[in-house]
Design goal:
By secondary structure, the protein is mainly alpha-helical. It has a single domain (27-142), classed as Orthogonal Bundle (Arc Repressor Mutant, subunit A). Helix content is 72%, strand content 4%. The protein contains six helices and two strands; from the N terminus they run αααββααα. It has helices at 7-43, 48-55, 59-71, 87-109, 114-124, 130-142, and strands at 75-77, 83-85. It has a two-stranded antiparallel ribbon with strand order 1-2. Helix 4 packs across helix 6. The radius of gyration is 18 Å and the shape is globular.
Length: 146
């Protein structure tokens, strides 16, 4: 005999799907601002062609996404010039980097090979809740990765 479904389980499932959709919408913005911050740190500036090369997308895709990021107040740029992060953009980039590092270190701590942890953590960071991220960080304090 199948256990009866609880009415709340449908609500929880719906909430999970809703959060995943919201996470997906923010994922591209987060990836772009993280990459822009990385390029600025490495090269002193970020340019659309560098972004396209690193992400493996067309320049037109980068232009469209940068326009959206500018509309969101995350970046500033002028045509044919470098791209700069706003204060909100830097905050998002730093938060994304922190989340990424915790997720990657957690995967390494539980025995995931380095190359796979690096790939898997890129993406997982966008979907992990603050509560889960805190639990991962606590786990890492008790189980440091070399």
């Amino acid at each position: 005999m199948k256990p009866a479904k609880r009415p709340q389980s449908a609500k929880l499932r719906s909430a999970a799907f809703k959060r995943t959709r919201a996470d997906h919408q923010a994922e591209i913005s987060e990836d772009y601002v993280e990459l822009i911050a990385e390029l600025i740190d490495e090269k002193g500036e970020a340019r659309g062609t560098d972004i396209a090369l690193r992400l493996g997308v067309a320049n037109a895709t980068v232009v469209k996404t940068l326009k959206r990021l500018q509309d969101q107040g995350l970046v500033t740029q002028e045509p044919y010039r470098a791209i700069f992060l706003s204060a909100d953009g830097w905050k998002m980039a730093e938060n994304g980097k922190r989340k990424h590092e915790i997720v990657e270190r957690f995967l390494l701590a539980i025995g995931v090979p380095e190359a796979i942890a690096r790939i898997d953590s890129e993406g997982m960071e966008h979907h992990v809740s603050d509560e889960t991220l805190k639990a991962m960080a606590r786990f890492l304090v008790r189980n440091p990765v070399n």
